[in-house]
Amino acid sequence: MFNALTLLDVPMAPYPFTTLEPNRGVGAVRVPCPHVEKGVPCTPGNAKCVEGVRWVPVNLIDVPGLVPGAHEGKGLGHKFLDDLRAADGFIQVVDLSGSTDAEGRLAAPGSQDPADEVAWLENELVTWVSEILGRDFERQARSVELEGKKVEDFLAHRLTGLSVSPAALAAALRGSTLDRAHPSHWTADERRGLATALLRASKPRLVAANKCDRSTSEALTALTGAIGEIPAVPTAADAELTLRRAARAGLVNYRPGDASFSMNDPERLNPAQVKALESLRAILARWGGTGVQPALERLVFDRLHQIVVFPVEDETHWVDGRGRVLPDALLVPADTPARAVAYRVHTDLGEHFIRAIDGRTHRALAADQPVGANAVIRIVARK
Fold first, then answer.
1. I need a labelling partner for 212 at 20 to 30 A (CA). Which of 160, 253, 276, 362 fits?
2. Domains of the chain
């Protein structure tokens, strides 16, 4: 999955702990490029444009596999969990064909239930966060009560390092029945419930039901029904990796996320290669694609609620100071205020912000007004 999304070549093998240290790479998500509206070619900088589609980079980390009992130190244990601290969200890759056991060993097809893996990962993550919350909790909570401090500030301090935003913390508390005035009265079960809500708000998860090419739609239906609100996307990562490598070699015309491909020069291929590509064509026809690109995009756009913004220096011609058309594309959370976008472009623009101007409507946006998805905006700041 990681190699398919990044076109890197990290080790892949069907045995536990092939990955011992996190692998880092860059994938990309797709949005329409506004240059099509303008009728002029863009000059991509950080995000390439292919036939009117902008590929916006996303940082990815492939972490060593988790095993049941990781919170107790089993497998790579706490090291694995520490690798997850800075993540905004998770794609959990499970074996839809049921041929991999909980510790990553090969098993007879259909002998394992992928829903079990989703459940025990949930348990490991919730237990991990619960333990972080619970350390010396009652004593410190009584101190909060005596000093009249806000429980939100108390929790934010305890969760430092987990990348839990104030908004996610507020959402978790809002959905709970906890007595905020008396945190020292919270039971272990109540703290565990808060940990569950915090994870769902701050680190949304999506399941990649992998090896769908070796499984059935009935297995996908069973998995989806068992895991509840966590979305599951059928994926065939091996097929996606093969197609992306073939496209890079010029053997096929394939764009990640497409439901089909074409062979550029079939006469260059030997019979075995043609047969292999035709088997991949059958997978795409059956499932509507490999699902790998849609899985990443569903996490980024649907679960993490990110949007893309195009900052420019000229709201009429959509160019920067060097005359480049729409050079940059930034991923930001939906409802991000205009000033926060300015800070993303440059600290000075945020600190000296006056207003933003929408490149389509030419209307001014105040500092606290949110920008829209695929917005083209100019930041006006004091010199």
1. 253
2. 1-22+63-236+289-304 (1.10.8.470), 237-288 (no CATH), 308-381 (3.10.20.30)
